[in-house]
Amino acid sequence: MQLLWEGLKQSILLLFSGDPEVLQITLLSLQVSGLATAISLGLGLPIGSLLALGSFPTRRFWISLVNTGMALPPVVVGLVVSIFLWRSGPLGDLNWIYTTTAMVLAQVIIAAPVVTGLTVSALQQLDPRLRQQLLGLGASRLQMVLALWREARLPLLAALMAAFGSVISEIGASMMVGGNIRYHTRVLTTAIATATSQGDFALALALSALLLLMAYLINLTLTWIQQRNVRRG
Amino acid sequence: MVAVLEIRDLLVSRGKRPVLQVAQLDILEKEILAIIGPNGTGKSTLLLVLSRLIKAERGQILYRGKIMQSSSDLAYRRKIGLVLQDPLLLDVSVFDNVASGLRFRGLANRLVAPQVNLWLERLGIAGLAKRPARSLSGGEAQRVSLARALALDPDVLLLDEPFSALDAPTRARLLDDFHGLIRSINITTVFVTHDMDEALLLGDRVAVMLDGHLAQVGTPAQVFNAPTDPDIARFVGVETVVAGRVISCQPGMALVEAGRFKFEAVGEIAAGRPVYICLRPEDITLWALPVEQTSSVRNQLTGRLVKLTPQGPLMRVVLDCGFPLVALITRTSANEMGLATGQEIAASFKASAVHLIAR
Prior knowledge:
heterodimer, A: mainly alpha, MetI-like fold, 11 helices, 76% helix, B: alpha+beta, Rossmann fold, CATH 2.40.50.100, 2 domains, six-stranded mixed beta sheet, five-stranded antiparallel beta sheet
């Protein structure tokens, strides 16, 4: 308990000291996970919409694949991406291994199935006759999909939150493909692991508090956007 | 009159089962065509085919004389207005819902507002413009749905049972308002319903659908008074359909036989011909026995009362005359006659009330 208490006290001091390294790690975490979430959204929304609204023979197979992808262990993603980006690997010539690009790539692989799967679920919960009604009102296919996204905005925002939550908190993939290089690829989760392994619990706790605070603030904003239009009663 | 839509040799299947087969149907300029039929007979499917939302397996639909191609679906859909049974409003304000179709067409905002306001006013919902659509009652929501379609100034209005999900008083009010409105704007309309009153009120012509086929098309009077088939007769409210035979026929009048009774019927069908004798329940008068001969009605028969059930403000009476004869009488009449099951009573009807269908 003493250890925890001391750690907490030190973490508060560290948080308010404006340590440049802590700031850099925090911003890099936001940058990597934010970009990965944005790319996942760009991929997951259209693919999820195609799977939810399309009618083609292998649709169910792809949906089950996406649903499986939602539970991909980050460490497995890290391993596979590492193999591909390793200098002797198929994509070794890109020289992405141990870069933030590799971390974004790995996080996209983690978050895209989450966005896709939850988009499928969100759109399939809408009344299927709404599509007919929208087309009957003269909507083009694109206008129809945009209108459906608007109708499903609450669960789609939940998908966004789930995707961001899954990548900001993962460590396995970032550690393996980023290498946890100080000032280059060290993010909050890998920094916490490093500090803990070095016995620097104050730093670990401070970084954990930062990670939680950041995740909370981002989800608070998204939740506010999500809930402001919810009718009560 | 010019046909706006022409259906030719249409076949729609679900799996291998044909659900809609229409050899020919023309929808004429400015007419209101009511499509009626029991549930599951392909009425809504026909409407969705006409909206180009379901592809037909075979056949053609001509719009203003031209065969429609898949590539022109969007352009065509922007010429129609579609209202489905449920309002299916978007989760935005009433104003934005009514504006949605206009915005899909890329209409400038300065042109959208006057059009939306006009139709909100005409549907009596101008006061609801800013309300979230999800907060509306069923009747209000359906008014928004109608305003949304009518604001498009469509060449053809397609309505799929728009009043059927409403409670009776709301439905009656909306139907009354809509009747006045649709007559004043004079727009080509296809109106699907299973309610005969709605079809009678709104339809210039009525098309009856049974088992995926178009069974009869005609004016409301033709369909309701002279159905061409016993199934159509039963659907349009003829409750007594009895197999019989024409005994003799004179100009304008036939004598027909059913069981132990003989009736006179207005019409000409050759003697010896087997027929169905059709009688609407509201055309039958009941008399307590013994009958005083004060009426000029020729057709009289007696039977035993087997069933007496309330039907709205009336009483539905079933007599066993060797065949079931169904009559509708007022509750007052039923009370005055002291009707009870097992009682022998007389029934009468005019020769003009009998409709004969050749078997």
